[in-house]
Amino acid sequence: MPKGGTALERSELTESSAADLPYFTSKPAVVQNYVDEFVFKKINKDGIPRAALCSDIEFLRRVTLDLTGRLPEPDTIRGFVADTDVNKRGKLVDEFMKATTKGMTVKPSTPFLDRWTYFFADLFRVNNSMGAGRILLHRHIYNALTTNEPYDEFVRGLLTATARSNFDSAQANFLIRFDVDQPDQSTVNHEDTYDEMAIRTSRMFLGLNLECISCHDGARHLEKINLWLTQKKRADLWRQAAFFGKVRMYRPYGDLVDEFVLNNEGTGYDTASKSVVRLPRYKADTTPTFILTGEHPREGEDPRDAYARMVTGNRQFSRTIVNNIWAELFGAGIVDPPTAFDLVRYGSDGSTNGGLGPLTQYAELLDAMAKDFEEHHYDLRHLIRTIVTSSTYQLSHRLPQGGWKAEYADYFARHLVRRLPAEQVWDALSDATGIYDEMPIGDSGRKVKYVLQTVSPEDIPGKLRKVLASFGLDDRTLGTRSLTGSPVQASILLNSDLVKEKIKSDKKGRVWKLMHAEPPKTNEKIVEEIFLATLSRFPSTAESQFGVKLVAENHDAGAEDLLWALLNRPEFLLNY
Amino acid sequence: MNSPRSPIPSLTRRSLLRIGGVSLAGFELLPFAPPLNAAAKQKVNPRGTAEYCIFVFLQGGASHVDSFDLKEGKWTPPDFDVRTIHPDLKMPTGLFPKLSQCTDKFAIVRSLEAWETEHGRATYYLHVAHQVSPARVHEIPSLGALIAYEFQGKRKPSDFLPPFVSMNYGPDQIKEGMLDSKYAPLNFDTKGGDLSFVVPAEERTRFDRRVGYLKALGELKPSAIAPDSHPIAALDAFRSDALTMMNSAQIPNILSIGDEDKKRYGDTEFGNACILARNILKSESGTRFIAINHGGWDFHVKIYEKSQKANHYTKSRDLDGGLAVLLSDLEQTKDQDGRSLLDKTLVVVMGEFGRTPGELSPGLGRDHHRYAMSGLFAGGGVKGGKVLGVTDAEGGRVLKADWSKKRSMYPEDVAATIYSALGIDWTKEIKTTPSGRVFEYLEFQSGTSFLDVGEISELFV
C-alpha cells in the first residue's frame, strides 16, 4: 500500500533539459515498502545523494521492458500518462503478471511468461545439447510460471528427475544438459558429470562458484577473491558432487543422439576414475556432505532427494533467487555478480576481511527479502512485485544534485542505464516497425514472432542469429549475455539488410498504416505515433516540428526516414 | 552431434564494467595511450620482418597424418595420390593439388604439440597462448587483440579499418579481454553474410540524407537520457566508427567479393574469406592481424567418407583452393618499394591439435591427438620450402623437433614466432589488470612445467 502522497513537483534534476520533454516530470520518492525502508535509511545515513522518482512515462517504458521484454504500445502510453489513479503504477504491474489462461481453449502467449521463461532458460542453459528435449523443458518452465508454482518445488522437481528418455520427460533435461563425455564421446564420464552438476546447481541455486575449487583448494589461490572459498578444498566439491553419485546417464538410443536415460543406478562417486576436464583427483572421503551445513543424507534417503531438500531449504537458496531477479531488474545484484557470494564477507562490516571490504551494503535487506520470499511460499510474482513497486526500483537514472561518485552505485541511489539485451533489441525493432520474423521452433511446426518466444538460439534463423550474436546474445553454451557496444552493432542498425527490410514502408508495417490511415491522420499525429512506438515518449516541440517537416516534404519516404533515424538514436537501445 | 562441454566458465564481467571496459572512443586515431606498465623482462630481439599476420584456424583439429605430415598405411585411400615432393616431403596431391605445386612458397612444421585435447580449451590456448584460467578468462586478450594494441602507435590518421579483423568466427571468439574495445575483432561473415558496412551505391543518397537527419535530431535538445550516463557516449563513438568505415570510398571495393575472384578462390566460404583478407591488407588501411576460421575438421567419424557432405577431402580442397591463390595474390601485390605483400605478411595455418594416427577408429574417423600436429607458415620472412620436424612412422610422437630447443614446439612458441616476426617483444607484461594479477604476454610456466619459450627462428634462416 502506498504510504505517502504523490504530489507532482517540477523536477529537481541537475540535468534540466529532459524537463522540456512532455510528461518527464519526476516525483519525490516516498517509502512504498520495506525495501525502501532499508535502502533510504542506508542512503540517508551515509549521506549519499539520491535520485528522484522517475516520471510515469519513464516508468512505463522501463517496467514494460523489464517485465515483458517489449516496448509499450502508443495507446498504452497515452492512457497511462493521462490516468489520474494514484495507484496506477501498481495496477500496471499486476496487469502484466495476470495469469489469463483459465478456461481458454487456446493457450495464449503472455509477454510476461515469455520473458521470464526466457530468463530461466538462460539460467538453466537450455539449448540443443538436450536434443528435442529442450522444447519439453521450455514448456515445463512456461507452465510452472503460468501456474505460479512455488519456486522451491519447481527446483526440487528438476534436481530429482529420472527418465527413461529426456525426449519424453521434461525435467530430466535439466541435469542432462551438464553431461560430460569421455574423450571418445561414446559414453558419459560420470564423475566429471557429477562435478558439473554440483558446480552448476550450486552456482544457479546457491550463488556459490564452486568451479574455483574443482581444480585446486581455495587456500593460496582465493585469498584476494573469496574468503569463504579460500577455506574450501577440492574434496569439499567432490562431497557436494557425491549427492549425484547415484546418478547414471547413458545413451542407449544411438551414439550421437542426445537422448539419455537418467536414473539412480549409479555406483557412487569414485575419485579413482579418470577425469577429462579436471586435474586428476586424489583419494578422499566422498560421503555426500552439503557444503553449507556439513549435513549428510538421512538413513535410507536418496542422495538427490537429500540434496534437493537441503538446497531449497537453505536461506542461501532464497537469497540467490532474490538476488538474481534483483540483478535482472536493476542491472546489478545486491551481491554482484550474482555467482560471487562470499559467505565470510556477507553481512560482515569488512573490518576482518583481509582488505576485501564488505560484500554488499544491503545484506540485511537481502535477508529480509529472502525471508519474505520463503514466507510467501517462494512466490516469484510476489518477489517481482515487491521489487518493481518499490520506490528504489522506480528512481530516476538522472544524477541527483550533490555530485555523483562511481562508488555510490553500490547504494542503488539512482537507476542504472543499460543497453537492451540482444533478444529485446530485436523484438523492439519488430514492434516499432510492425514487421515481424517467422521463427520455427525445431520440428514442432510451431512458429513464433518474438525472439523472446524461442526455446533456444537454435530456433533463430541463421542470418538473424549472427546479427543477435553481434549484440551479445547469450548462446547458452560458452558465452554469457554481453551488453557492450561495437561498431558492428552500429552498422547493423544503420545499414544491415535485415533492419532495412523492416523499415521499408512498402512492407505495410506501422509506418505504412499510419500514412494510409482512414480517416487520414495529421502529420503531427503521425510523428507523435512514430516517436511513441520507437522511443516510448512524445516528441519535444522541436522534434515534432522537425518530424512534421520531413513527413510533409517527403510523405512515405519522409516517415521512413524518421523511423530509421529514431531507431538509430542511442535512446532506442537503452533501458533507462 | 554432441558438442564437447567446455569447462570455460561463465564468470560475469562486473569488474571490467566498473573499470570501464567499454571505451569512450572507437578505433579512430587517439594520442597513443602509454602501455599499462608493459615492461620487458629479459632481452630478446624481435626480428620485425612482417607488418601483418594472417592466421588461418583449422578449427576442429585437422588430421596432420592426412595433410602436412602424410603417413601412409593400409587405410590410405588411393585417390590421395601421395607423391614425394622432395626427400623430406610427401604430400597427398589429390587433396592439395595447388599447394603441392607451390611448396617453395611455404614452410611446414611437424614437431608441434598441443597442451589440451578438448576443443574449447585447445582453441583458447592456440588463440591466446595461455592456458584457460577461469579467474582470468575475461581479462586476458587474444593474440590478435594484443597485436592490435602493440601496433596502436603506428596507426595513421588515414587508417579506417580496425587493427584486428576476423572472418567466420562465432560468438565464442576470444576477444580483447581487458584491453580497450578498439582492439576487439571486427568479425565478418563470408557465408552469404550481411556486409552491413557496405552501403550499396544506389542507396548512397538516401543513406547520407538519413545520417544527416540523425545528426540533426541528435542536436535538438533535449535528451531523454542524461548525456553523462556511461553507455550513451560509447554508443555514439561506436556509431561514429561505423560511419567512418561506411563513408570511406574504398570500403565497397575492399569488402566486396567479385565473381571472378570468387571462382579463382574456389567459390567457398573460406575462399571468400581469403579474398577479403587480401583486399583488406592490400588497402593498408590499419588492419594488422586477420584471423580466418576454417571450421569443421573434427572428423571423429567417417573421415574419408565421400558421401558425407563434409569430409576430409572437401575440407582439404577448400583450404587448398583458397590458400594457394591467396599466397600467390599476396606475392603478386607489390608496394612502391617493390616489396611483395607476402613478404610483409606472416601467414600461419594451424588447428588446435592433431588427430589420432594409424588405423582409423571404430567409427572410421580420427580422434583428438595432442602429441603431434602440423602447421604451415609462409611470408613475413619465412623461408619457403622448409620442412621442420620428424614424427614417428605413424605420426603419433615427435622424434626430431629440428630447432634449437630439445623439445617439441608449443602454442607459446608459435605465439613468440608471430610476435617476433611482427617486431613485438614477447617478454613484456601488463601490471594494471582488473584481477590485480600480472599479465605476461607469454608465460614461462605452463601447467606444472617450466618452458623456455622461444621463437622458431629456424623458419626464417
Mean pLDDT of chain B: 87
- Specify the structural class of chain B: alpha/beta
**If helices are DSSP runs of H or I spanning 4 or more residues, what is the number of helices of chain B?**
12
What are the segments of chain B in which pLDDT stays under 50 over at least 5 consecutive residues? 1-35
Verbal overview:
The complex is a heterodimer of chains A (576) and B (461). The two termini of chain A are 25 Å apart. With 576 residues, chain A is mainly α. Chain A contains 23 helices and 6 strands. In chain A, strands 1-2 form a two-stranded antiparallel ribbon. The longest helix of chain A has 27 residues, at 541-567. The model of chain A is unreliable at 1-16 (pLDDT under 50). Chain A is globular and about 80 Å long. In chain B, the strands form 6 sheets. An 8-stranded mixed beta sheet of chain B has the order 7-6-8-2-9-12-5-13, with helices on both faces. Chain B has a 3-stranded antiparallel beta sheet with strand order 1-16-17, with no helix packed on it. In chain B, helix 9 (269-283) packs parallel to helix 10. Chain B is built from 12 helices and 19 strands. In chain B, strand 14 and strand 15 (398-400) form a beta hairpin. The longest helix of chain B is centred in the C-terminal third of the chain and has 21 residues, at 312-332. Chain B is globular, with a radius of gyration of 23 Å. With 461 residues, chain B is of the alpha/beta class. At the A-B interface, strand 3, helix 17, helix 18, helix 22 and helix 23 of A face helix 5 and helix 6 of B.
